[in-house]
Amino acid sequence: xxFGGSAIASxxxxxITPSIRSQKGWIWSKNTLSANDWLLDIKLRITGRGRVGxxxxxxxxxxxxxxxxxVFGSNDQWKGLGIFLDSFDNDAL
Length: 93
What we know:
Layout: E1 2-5, E2 8-9, E3 14-15, E4 25-28, E5 57-62, E6 68-71, E7 80-85
Antiparallel strand pairs: 1-4, 2-3, 5-7
């Protein structure tokens, strides 16, 4: 795994960002996925101190290795699949 930004790994978990404004972090696999069929089974928790949430997170399956960028921490041009989880409460309702 390759970590960047404010991502921190321990034996049991990875914290992509701390609960501080304007932070971003990322984790990229160093290995390529060669399977035609796959299943993603994850346990995730998105929490923070504020009520409106943050921008969110993304899970990427791309042809090329990830690079830092403006779209949920990655480049705005990619070939592959991006799954975006937007946790920001835009209308604050």
